[in-house]
Design a protein that fits this description.
homotetramer, alpha+beta, five-stranded antiparallel beta sheet, 14 helices, 9 strands, globular
Chain lengths: 304, 304, 304, 304
Amino acid sequence: MDYQNILNEIHAEVQPIIGSAPPADYIPELANVDNKKFGISLTTISGEEYGVGDTEVKFSIQSISKVITLAKVFYSLGDQIWERVGVEPSGTTFNSLTQLEFEKGIPRNPFLNSGALVITDMLISIFDKPKEEILRIMRSISGNNEIIPNLKVAESEIGHSERNKALAYMMKSFGNIHNDIDHLLEVYAYQCAIEMTCKELSKAFLLFANNGFCRFSNKRELTVSQTKRLNAIMQSCGFYDEAGEFAFKVGLPGKSGVGGGIVAVLPGQFSISVWNPGLNKKGNSLVGMKALELFTTKSGISIF
Amino acid sequence: MDYQNILNEIHAEVQPIIGSAPPADYIPELANVDNKKFGISLTTISGEEYGVGDTEVKFSIQSISKVITLAKVFYSLGDQIWERVGVEPSGTTFNSLTQLEFEKGIPRNPFLNSGALVITDMLISIFDKPKEEILRIMRSISGNNEIIPNLKVAESEIGHSERNKALAYMMKSFGNIHNDIDHLLEVYAYQCAIEMTCKELSKAFLLFANNGFCRFSNKRELTVSQTKRLNAIMQSCGFYDEAGEFAFKVGLPGKSGVGGGIVAVLPGQFSISVWNPGLNKKGNSLVGMKALELFTTKSGISIF
Amino acid sequence: MDYQNILNEIHAEVQPIIGSAPPADYIPELANVDNKKFGISLTTISGEEYGVGDTEVKFSIQSISKVITLAKVFYSLGDQIWERVGVEPSGTTFNSLTQLEFEKGIPRNPFLNSGALVITDMLISIFDKPKEEILRIMRSISGNNEIIPNLKVAESEIGHSERNKALAYMMKSFGNIHNDIDHLLEVYAYQCAIEMTCKELSKAFLLFANNGFCRFSNKRELTVSQTKRLNAIMQSCGFYDEAGEFAFKVGLPGKSGVGGGIVAVLPGQFSISVWNPGLNKKGNSLVGMKALELFTTKSGISIF
Amino acid sequence: MDYQNILNEIHAEVQPIIGSAPPADYIPELANVDNKKFGISLTTISGEEYGVGDTEVKFSIQSISKVITLAKVFYSLGDQIWERVGVEPSGTTFNSLTQLEFEKGIPRNPFLNSGALVITDMLISIFDKPKEEILRIMRSISGNNEIIPNLKVAESEIGHSERNKALAYMMKSFGNIHNDIDHLLEVYAYQCAIEMTCKELSKAFLLFANNGFCRFSNKRELTVSQTKRLNAIMQSCGFYDEAGEFAFKVGLPGKSGVGGGIVAVLPGQFSISVWNPGLNKKGNSLVGMKALELFTTKSGISIF
């Protein structure tokens, strides 16, 4: 398939809607990002790379980091992690406390903020230096040792973390957070503040298209079975209360971040990332969603 | 792949749990079904058929019928149907009124009872003789003109339809039901009471594995794009509040029914159906879920 | 206390807000009522009557009828009625299904539509001719044999009763409705469509200020203890999700109706009724709420 | 009325149920209280005192303190406080986050933990030394300068305050908490840990029966109108999701605490306090509720 040509067509077709949606506004570092930027990158499991637009501009990966910490913790601890977090879509927004209260502090899935906090809490319990470990895995799977967080973003997030603290204290009241909450929030802000380019992000997610084996670290990061399961969770829960819509229109497992990035995979074939900071009302990149919908339409490719 | 051998192995391995769960008990016709019966059938798009166990015993397809009426209405009306029903997983049980109230009478998805009632309401608006049309399509896609509903089941369902009537009147209060509610409930009970064997069910669902073209009716029943979308909805919403679990463990789009049937498809390859009447706490066939999980494990096959 | 003077002052002071709020609009018979009408009447247990404005104009008592049917059923059946309906405020709107679902078909209190339907269902079970019985009690306690329902209103209500049917079927699915639902809705519409004047309404409610003994029927309609309890329920639950606000600002047990009437009692002293059809956002008479707040302020009278 | 005789009768009649319910168990200081203790005290506005049982044993007043801080803040700031907290019953338990989320961080009423935290947050904003001020007012209105908190209880509460922290951070995320949360929780734990005897408690609440004027401080603590309103809030919201039940059975404005104390007032007449540490499933003193129900039955006294 002529991926480059498809990406070029998408690039042309999304031009009219670029800039039409505002970026996240809860911290200045995200609010001030140029919402005219757009990039799309695709990496195949045989190593081919395609891309167009601002594919080498860094952006905040935010919630996309949740997939990577989940992979790390899942490979480390195995199925016992599912005692502390579920795999069901939530039907609600990413930071809802309501469901968490009804379900006794067990988050519905690891891509809700509550669930990601539980995963990061596990990561802190495993590793003495959790931040270093997060950085190490990010660099390793994307084959780029220069990857770093934007510490200003991390700091701002911490200054606006009341809702996440409410989630964390709620879960602690049910015994589902084990570490100090201020430390947890700090590590969590650190992982969300990691910056990558579209190119790096599609590389980093290639392992999910490649049965858990990473071309760049040259080692297994997940078992074959775990990879399938993690892809299934991305499919079911990767887009908050727009997960069904994404499955319906795009048909690939993926994950979005409030920085405007989206990454998706076709198991056995490729990973694809797209970035534009303007967000729709559900908190997902407006142009990114459209670009991936166009990709599916033009290529005829989906898991369905 | 040696499908027959895999099915045989599954048949052997599920024996210990057959009979351990009770069938649906809300009407005597379902409560009295023999929960020792078990069948599993697989049909490939090239026409091969595999199976083991009670693959030629009729059972009530119940909610599995929702996929077929949805396909019929979707192909007839196109995307306008999504103004009256969503595509998001619900995170709640199949007959909840709560979400329906918050969302102004628009069901989350067409596989909730509320959503299926809206789809059947559309079908009634399109066809003068909706029951005949339902029977016609069921027979046509499974290549079997003998398929009929169990009218005793239909009658019993009508006698126990208070909850569905509540859903229907609630939606009518928001303007989202257009036809007479007693008639709607009667047609709905009729479609749920259709009986098929595992063999027939896997044939009937082959069109979803075959891009919308049916080998048996020898015609297109859905466009290619609609087929992908319908598969995506099965993936996201086919198992009530166990949809994520099914995606996680099985990794195939599918649909369950309270009669104990489950059907799933691997797009481009095959459809597979399994039946045992014993239900788990979420209302899905306990043995059926296990059998499909074993199928994925043994074959290594999933969309992920 | 110079009640007449206080009522005159209130009449003068509410003039500027009369006509500022629209009447109920869900049926034409209520929507077309003149929202410039205003009346206020007070009757003491010693038989004095005070009033000003349109105190002899008939209006639809609507939900105020729920108190009278509750009194009738409570006196007939005693405390067993509390097995089928609670006495707690709901915290939600008058026709919510959500809470009803969580609480297995047991309405929070008898002044929610769901709870009132249960009470009317009991009344139907007790009396062979429930409509006649409702008319008889209404006439008896207000000392006026001319009281009748507006049958056009009743008919219109039945034509707009989808939501109430949803509530009724929901409760029936939990076994908490015993009679035919169409009949139940008809009797319920009949009781809501009763018309009274302010004068008649304050007379009818005098029994609640008089320990359950009615001056007009000249007999006991409730025991002393039941009267206190019914007043307590009016206090806790008489104004939907504005019950706390009414207690806070007015401080008398009372009940509102969507026809714009409100009635309240000071136990041991008097009953007071007020009417203006314009409704606030909570569905209570805007001017009526203000008039009673002024009454409390001017008279210094409240149960607190 | 022969209050002493009534109290004696109650004392005798509740003996069989004393000790049948367990005390609060979330901190050892409450769990280890002797649940055989029982006291009941009544103070009239003319200064008479009645009592029987353990009326001079100290216990933790816990949530009863919420009424006193509310009175202090209400008298200081006036009606502006109602912009940050409502007056409606919640229909849910005392520490629910669900409703708080739906209602954008504005607690339903000041007797929920969330609402009480907002009131204490206001108190911290007003007074430089909030703890001293709390102690001063408690001592002043009960006419006893020896009143102190149990600092072990306060410390234990802080160590078990995850749920309250979750509430506080949630409200802060909506801008409805202004002070440091650790400090807020500390002051809140301090007020809840105040210890009083039944005798002291009935004296402290006499001001609510006396139109806001306190016999012991010899000054006005609330305006007449504010007193009525505060009594109305106690009536509507004083017993969590048992407020309707208390109104129904007891018919007096009151407030309970998890330490097993309950206090109630008859406006214009008296205040009455009762204590036994055993709690019913709603978190209110089982014996205390029964004792006050007996009081109403025997005396025929209620606001209704």
